[in-house]
Write a structure and sequence with these properties.
Elements lengths: L1 H25 L2 H29 L6 H20 L3 H22 L8 H14 L2
Helix pairs in contact: 1-2, 2-3, 2-5, 3-4, 4-5
């Protein structure tokens, strides 16, 4: 797992460098900052989705972990939503927000092992639209 996180961190760092270089050559600092915020927050969401997957697997032992993971994803989604006016990013944020809401509803309705594949799919789409 540590090697996977290092690879993701390295990939994010490379993406950030490319975004900074490209955006710096073609636009102002605000665009660079927005792109970096999007990529960094998408990476944080990916970590939260991993935490959510583990929390769902261990829900019988600690049901509060699922809620904490969902809260973390929503907090990061708010950060992206506040900082972007990109239609593709906004759609990805909306889709992920809906997927998180569906998991919350399933848990409230007694499902101890909700299907989180829509969350992982939406998080993947968000990561895709946040990277150039």
């Amino acid at each position: 797992m540590a090697a996977s996180h290092r690879r993701r961190t390295t990939a994010v760092a490379a993406t950030l460098a490319a975004v900074a270089l490209t955006a710096g050559l073609t636009t102002g600092c605000d665009a660079v900052d927005k792109a970096l915020d999007c990529v960094q927050t998408a990476d944080a969401i990916a970590d939260s989705v991993t935490d959510l997957q583990q929390a769902v697997e261990n829900a019988a032992n600690d049901p509060a972990q699922v809620d904490q993971s969902l809260d973390s994803i929503e907090k990061n989604l708010d950060k992206i939503d506040d900082k972007t006016d990109n239609a593709d990013v906004n759609k990805a944020v909306d889709d992920l927000t809906q997927a998180v809401g569906n998991v919350r509803t399933a848990i409230r309705n007694g499902d101890n092992t909700p299907d989180i594949s829509p969350v992982t799919d939406a998080a993947g789409e968000l990561t895709k639209v946040c990277t150039p």
